[in-house]
Amino acid sequence: MLPSRYICALLLTFLCLHGKTLLASVKLSGTIKNRISDSIRISYNDNRLVYAPRSFTAVLDKKNRFSLTFPVPESGYVQAELKHGNRYSELLLREGDSLVLTADVDHFDSSVHYEGRGSAVQNFVVLHIIARGRMNQYALRIKNHMPQEPPAFLKSIAQEKQDELTFLEQNKKGLPVSFIKYWESFYTYYNYFFVQQYPQLHEMVRLRRYTDTIPEENYVVLQDMPHAFDDNMLQVPSYLLYLSGIFESGLKAAGYAHPVTVPENARLFLDSVNTLAYTELPSKSGEYFVAQSLYARIKRQAIENTRAEFAAFKKRWPQSEYEPLLSKQVATAERLQPGQPAPDLAVTTADGRHLKLSDLKGKVVYLGFWAAWCKQCVGEMRSEQKVKDILKNKPVEFVYVSIDEDSVAAGKLMQQLKITGSFCWTQGGWYSPEVGMYGVQSLPAYFLIDRDGNFALQNPPTPAQSTELIVAISKLY
Asked: Domain 3-129 adopts which CATH fold?
């Protein structure tokens, strides 16, 4: 991210977060010995629906000192990252913290130490990093147990959680009660979430391929899944994960395991999930659940369904903090509907040409957003060559738009793959105008554009769906 973007993000975040004026803040100052950069950066995600990082930077003076004051949400703990050069640490910040950091780059993890208000929590987190790793590494440990059969899996993850609670018990002196509850809840809900994921992930590990056909015996792990709903837990990231799958996994365990085989059944299944959310969840948890579910589906489902669901959401939560983001997503979905004109890209190709989408009118365009670090993108680009071979000499253009910040690495990969097509670069990565115009939220992202420059399909086939893709393109020329 460019320095100007840091400045803009800082100003915007001070003015508004979740649509509310924020007065809560954290103070962080300190000294970095043997520095390898001229600054430190603090970043965290401030949005429950999407990854929307906020970053704050402080420059070190000649004595390697820095001082930074930045806003945080007004309640609960915020999982944040501290970065200095290629050194990282983790924090759990809360409004009112006033911290003084000392660290030595030469032995960074073991030297990080805090003084001041909130320091007991941060020093506990540092100790945890040294002894057990960063908090999100817990997910990797749980995934290692996925190959086990249900009884062994449940026993193993229960022990993983107990190990974390034992570490807490051994090192909880001086920690506030609110933090102890947060820490316990973080691992409790992470276990619940991975129990929900187990039926499918276990089968995929067993088969070594993707599948949505799940044996009934895999669902036995869900028999004792509690409905532990609590609006006060919305500050805990793993609670949000748990919420997102609680009703879907429960319905599947009750026998509705294959709703997607028939479109009508899939809609009935979704309606059942939404009904449970509206009736069983407390208000704030229900608001989040419905918002995240709708946000994830807006661009994939029929627009009339989106309009109806969004209207019901606004009626139930007329002052929702999620409404602006949902409104923007709905507007994007409207723009991307079949028959609507595709935004006119203006990008630079790998061979130095200036390419505009409007220059390609008269051709069918298969447009893909990708990045060199996206393994799925690279794999699908390889499989796309089969489609090109069949459609050669046809009026079809394959355009690849890279969002890589490191265009050199992306260019080398492109040459290694020897894939034909127009390779283009954006400026700004995820924040580039092209990503915004096309509403890209994840990679890879594909768009099929007809010879008049209009979107042809709402959900075009991927390169891996080669037969479907060939048929879809062939209908357009």
From this structure: Immunoglobulin-like (2.60.40)
